[in-house]
Amino acid sequence: MTDLQASLIAIGGTIVAAVITYNKWQEYKARKSVERVFGSEHDDVLMKPAASLVEDEQPRQEPSFAPEQMPIAPEPVMPPDLSNPATVEAVPSQRVPVRDLPIDELIDCCVPLALEGPVRGDKVLAKLQSLRHVGNKPVHFIGQLEDGNWEPITYRSIYYGLRASVQLANRSTPLTELEYSEFITRLRQIADEMNAELDVPDMAEVMAAARSLHQFATEYDAQLSVNVQSNSAPWAVNTLLSALERQGFDLRPDGRLVMPDGEGGSLFSLSVNAPLAAETTSRLTLLLDVPRVAPARDGFGAMTACAKMLAARLDGKVVDDDNQPLADAALEEIAAQVYAFYGQMDTANVPAGSTRALRLFS
């Protein structure tokens, strides 16, 4: 086993301590989440003493955003008003919580389908299979049961009403007129086959709601990155990737490594900034997709703690995109801004890391 491998294997155990001491105000749930991801109980007698971290008196620089991102803590831009006709009749919250359904009244355009009589779920599903997306916007359906409650369409249920929806926007584009026209045209074909009547929202109002929601997504589409730069010789990519995989990172086909949060999501990603075929690299980039990680998971704290440990064990330093060292004081200031940003997302009714945020920032 090489010194590099031994050092990387030790990272899992040391990151736990770093994350816990990083911020006294870090909540208990966040600490437990990070422990599950980074925890390691074994002792490693080959571990080297940790290299010194960057001193506080060095120039204070903030982690850089990805090029397309807006600055942290923007002025709030509210999503479309729920009373907008584009969202047509929200599912009654007193019967079925919105979070339990695939249709979200805030980010979807909902279209009711009035049925002539009850229909079986298997008959409905057979007609819906061909309409799952328009462009890159997902389409969903729910059905009304005899007791008035709503649920995702299943084979065995009997439905007395249906609703279809298309997502108004994602982080890349709003719903376009062409996509909306395709959605309604294909939905009319399904309705005709089922002898159902559509209550179609006005296109102009739908487009206005889509643009408003996309503006919100653009304003809050924040990504934070920190880098680890080698102080001397470059690192062997193959050794680096295999060792990080053993410590819990998932290697994706594009070469990125993603750190799972322990519950099916991810905390942050890591890129070696080199093709998979490359032999060495001198720079690692860790990236936090801010709106997709819940505040309680402290994604920024976990990411910066990981960066510090990598720098200490690999003879590197934590830097911004301009290769300027990042001191602890600067990172703490950015952490405070991140939590202010989360508060704004809560106010806008799109909590970071929620199902709604994951859909919108997809």
What this model shows, in words?
It contains nine helices and 17 strands. The chain is of the alpha+beta class. The protein has two domains: 3-73 and 220-360, Cell Division Protein Zipa, Chain: A (2-Layer Sandwich); 85-218, Cell Division Protein Zipa, Chain: A (2-Layer Sandwich). A hairpin with a 5-residue loop joins strand 5 (137-144) and strand 6. Helix 1 packs antiparallel against helix 2 and helix 1 (3-22) packs across helix 6 (237-246). The longest helix has 20 residues, at 3-22.
Summarize the structure.
It contains 9 helices and 17 strands. The protein is α+β, with helices and mostly antiparallel strands.
What is the total tally of β strands?
17
Report how far the terminal alpha carbons are from each other: 40 Å
Give the total of domains. 2
Overall 3D shape: elongated
Present the secondary structure layout.
Blueprint: H1 3-22, H2 28-38, E1 64-65, E2 108-114, E3 119-120, H3 121-128, E4 133-134, E5 137-144, E6 150-152, E7 158-159, E8 161-167, H4 177-193, E9 197-198, H5 203-219, E10 223-230, E11 235-236, H6 237-246, E12 250-251, E13 257-260, E14 266-271, E15 280-281, E16 283-289, H7 299-314, E17 316-319, H8 328-347, H9 355-360
Antiparallel strand pairs: 1-10, 2-8, 2-9, 3-7, 4-5, 5-6, 5-8, 10-16, 10-17, 11-15, 12-13, 13-14, 14-16
Helix pairs in contact: 1-2, 1-6, 1-7
Which terms summarize this structure?
single chain; Cell Division Protein Zipa, Chain: A; 2 domains; 7-stranded antiparallel β-sheet; 6-stranded antiparallel β-sheet
